Structure formats: structure tokens, C-alpha cells
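Continuing the series of single-chain predictions for the mutant panel. This is the parent chain; the variants come on the following pages.
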Amino acid sequence: MDRLLIANRGEIAVRVIRAARELGLETVLAASEPDADSYAASLADDVRVVGPAPAAKSYLDGAAVLRAAEDAGCDAVHPGYGFLSENPRFARSVLDAGLTWVGPSPDAIELMGNKSRARQAAREAGVPTLPGSDGALAPDVDPLPLAREIGYPLVVKASAGGGGRGIRLVTQEEDLVRTLDVARAEAQAAFGDPAVYLEQFVSRARHVEVQILGDGERVIHLGDRDCSLQRRQQKIIEEAPAPLLPDAVRDTIRASSIELGRQCGYSGLGTVEFLYDPDREQAAFIEMNTRLQVEHPVTEMVTGLDLVREQLLVASTGRLRLSQDDITFRGHAFEFRINAEDPSQGFLPSPGTLARLDWPGGPGVRIDSGVVAGSAVAPFYDSLLAKLVVWDETRTDAVRRSARALGEVRIEGVRTTLPLLSTVLHRPEVRDVTHHSKFIESTPDLLGADA
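Parent structure:
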């Protein structure tokens, strides 16, 4: 591997460029027209424009991205996260073109992309799962007996969904058939696949996940994270390790995540996500993400590893250089996603030009950003400006350091989610780890935090 095409933008493109350069790789950025003069573009060795602003005509156009890689003489493609990163057809086209795909096999992406098949694979690997249907519900099967067996409330999930999308809650039997019809129609429209399945609903659950790394034969874990602080099913604050997780639960989710990776011949980085019920002290499989995760820096901070470097090394050599005994953990880390959004307008994107941008510093403080002062924040893409990552010896110390670091951020030119992040961090529920994945949405005064 000598010349890497990065099929992404913003902070993750910057992150991959830096790791690739440290390995001596040349980098080529696939950019849309408005991103051709972005900060990431200024760092890459070469830039290839792949289309106009709409993602469907640029970053999601697999043929244009692959053509850019071939025209630029690249021998590998890193998809980052989002866009084409979990598209098995694109991964196959990269491999068929004779290039290295920095990620798991297309078969593994395809398996985990179908949530009902992934759930079945998880059960076969011994990963704990919630009561639910075995695979997708057949359209001509009466769902009522199965639903009574699972119990209410339950959720209807799109097999092709993921990332919090394609989920509907059913609290009583009278609503089940109608909800199934709506969910199938929505799944067909959103994902091109009407298949859905049923799963038990867990209230006040926390979202925990395990980072794995494999080479197709050997798989290791890099610890766990807690991503329960979400807004509209999108994570905004993450931490590692997951706090107040019983040792038995932590051991189970780590070991079973490794086994799931082994059974699907997993290569590269992957994340196995779980719902954790603190009342029952039980965790159950949600889904597996077959790519680099946005929140990977908190794992880097507690392990001292560069996960993108490890990802590139596995892709280039086909071998995992680390063993489980090489992995150690130290301290506690938080990540805060700073988005250009306007809280007074229901958190709509807040595009504009960054007139001022001051980041915090000091020990244990890291910024992963795709912008600099003067950058234009475009309205076409995800609103993530930067990730503030903070580490300290203990969770209590990391909370204090995070509060200090958040207070030093100065951003002018757009409105941001900084006030929400600070407010959430200071909540006693977060300090005491009594929060859950619906905590922000169910606490009215939190979403009123103004910019």
C-alpha cells in the first residue's frame, strides 16, 4: 500500500490523512466541489473532485469515487465512516478493481448490515440477545402470538436499518398490525427492503459497545465504551470505559464480541453494540458497525493505540500485529461532539463562516477537527465541527477536566451545541451514572440549553 484514497470529508478525512502520512503513505482526498478547498484538502497530497455538493452525486457515488482512485494512481481506499463505509457493493467494486479495501470483507459488511441476520449470527456466536423474532417476520405470518410471547412494549425494527434508524415502539397489542404496515412501508422507502423484525423493548437502558480488531482469523477487543448520551438516537457524548458496568457483564460482552468477530471472519475495526439494563444487570446485542466509529478516540486515549494506524496495517499486511495481552487500559476518557446547530431552532444546522475558533489545551486534551478559523460550514453535510476528547486518571477527574476544556472553546460565526454539552456534563445523573439513552430527550430543560 503506497497511495491511499480517502473517500470522506471533514474531521475523519483529516484523521485518516494524519495516520496515513505517519505510515509513509501518500494521500488523495475524494472531495465534492464545495470541499475542494477544505482544511482536509489542504493537508492531502492530491485532491480529486468527485461531484457537486449533494452527497448522492459525490460522496455516495461509488463509481465516481472509484474512478477518482484509479485516475489518481491509488492502490487502496479508506472509506472513513458514513457515506460508502458500510456499502458491500462499493467494497466489492474496490476489490474487483485490484485495490485494497481498508475495512472488513464485503460478506461481513453485508451480513451485519441486515439486522435480522446479524441478530441471528450474534445468537449463534453466543452473544446475548433480547427476546424477539427469529429473523425477519414473514408478511403472511400472524405476528400477534409472537408479540404476546415477547411482551409489550416491544420495538419493530427494519432489517436493513441501523444507527438508530428504522425503529418503531409498540406499547399495546391494538397498535401492532398498523405499526408493522407503516414500518414495512417506511423501510421499503428508506432502505429498499421492507423486511422488519420484533424485539423486546428495554426502558432506561444504557448504550454500551465493544471495540474489536481482527485480521480474518484472530480477533481481539480494545475495551468498551458508553454512548448513552444521545439526542434523537444520535450520540453526542461518549466515554471509555463504560462506567459502573459489573465485571461479569463486561467480561461477557467483550468475550462474545470476539467470538462474533471470529465466526464471521472479521478483519479490521468493528464495533459490537449492546443495550445494558442496569436494573437486571444484563446486556443484549443491538447491532454491529463494520467500520471505524466516530467515537474511536476515547478508546485511543485509554489504550494508547492509534486505531486508524492499526486499521491501515491490517489492511496492508493482512495480519494483526497485536495480541490481547498487548492491550492495557489506563484512565478514563470523554468525547464531546461539537456540532454547528442552532438550539433555538430545534437544532437545525447552522451554516456560516467560522470567524473565530479557539480550541482548549493542556494535559489530556485533544481536538479532532475538520475546520480552521475562516472555514465555511456548508449546509449540505453532517453538522459535526469537531470532537473534543479529554482524558484523566479517573472518571471524576476527567469530568472536571472536561468542564474546564469545554469552557475554553470559543467559536464565532455559527451557533453550536456547546451549551448543551456543558449542561449535560454537569447533570447529577451523568455524574452518578443514572442516565440512560433517552435521558436527554426525556429531560425537558436540557434541550432548552441556548447557544
